[in-house]
Write a structure and sequence with these properties.
Layout lengths: L1 H22 L1 H5 L2 H6 L5 H15 L11 E7 L4 E5 L12 H13 L5 E8 L9 H7 L8 E6 L2 E6 H4 L10
Parallel strand pairs: 3-4
Antiparallel strand pairs: 1-2, 1-3, 4-5
Bound molecules: zinc ion.
Zinc ion binds next to α5 and α6.
Length: 174
C-alpha cells in the first residue's frame, strides 16, 4: 500500500520534473532536442537516471537536516551508479549524494570510468544544485558535454557539466 503510494508520488515527481524542466528558461535556451543530440542519451534515459536518483534518496542517512538527496551517474560503460547523502553528527564529515555516487562508481568500476550524465534529486521539493566540493570531485570524471540535471529554485534545470563547472582546479605537472 505504502509502496504503491510511494511509487505514484515518485512518478508524479518525475513527471513534474520533466515538465517544469521543459518550461524553464534553460530548456528554452537549450532546445531539448538539440541538447539531447549532444549526448547519446534520450529523454527516457534521463528520466530513468532521475528515477534511480529518487530511489537512492530514499536511503539517505540525514537525521540532522532531514534533507534527502540522491544522485545517479550514467557511466560510459553503460552502468548506472547511485549515491545518497550520509550525514554525521560532526556535520563537517557529511558526504553529499554526488560524491557518494562517485566514490562508489570508482570503487566498483575502477579509475578509468567516465560519466556521461548526472541526475541529482531530493525528496524535500527544494533546490539542490551540486555543491562546489562535488563539482570539483566530479570534474575529474564527468565529460564536459555531459548533461547534469538538478532541482534549482525556479524548478528543474539541465546544464552541461562545463557550464556548471567552468574553471575546475587542475594540476599541470609539466
Ligand atoms: Zn556536494
Amino acid at each position: 500500500m505504502n509502496g504503491d503510494r510511494d511509487q505514484r508520488r515518485t512518478w508524479c515527481r518525475v513527471y513534474m520534473w520533466r515538465h517544469i524542466a521543459l518550461a524553464s528558461n534553460l530548456w528554452k535556451r537549450h532546445n531539448l532536442r538539440e541538447f539531447l543530440l549532444m549526448t547519446d542519451l534520450d529523454q527516457a534515459a534521463l528520466d530513468n537516471l532521475a528515477q534511480r536518483a529518487v530511489e537512492a534518496a530514499r536511503n539517505s542517512y540525514s537525521p540532522y537536516s532531514h534533507f534527502r538527496v540522491g544522485a545517479a551517474l550514467q557511466l560510459s560503460n553503460g552502468e548506472i551508479v547511485t549515491g545518497t547523502n550520509v550525514e554525521n553528527v560532526s556535520y563537517g564529515l557529511t558526504i553529499c549524494a554526488e560524491r557518494s555516487a562517485l566514490v562508489s562508481a570508482v570503487s566498483q568500476f575502477g579509475p578509468d570510468i567516465r560519466v556521461e550524465a548526472v541526475a541529482v534529486v531530493n525528496l524535500n521539493d527544494a533546490a539542490s544544485p551540486p555543491c562546489g566540493a562535488c563539482r570539483q570531485m566530479l570534474s575529474e570524471f564527468v565529460l564536459p558535454d555531459a548533461p547534469v540535471t538538478f532541482p534549482a529554485s525556479e524548478g528543474a534545470r539541465i546544464m552541461t557539466f562545463s557550464e556548471l563547472m567552468p574553471l575546475a582546479f587542475e594540476m599541470k605537472l609539466k
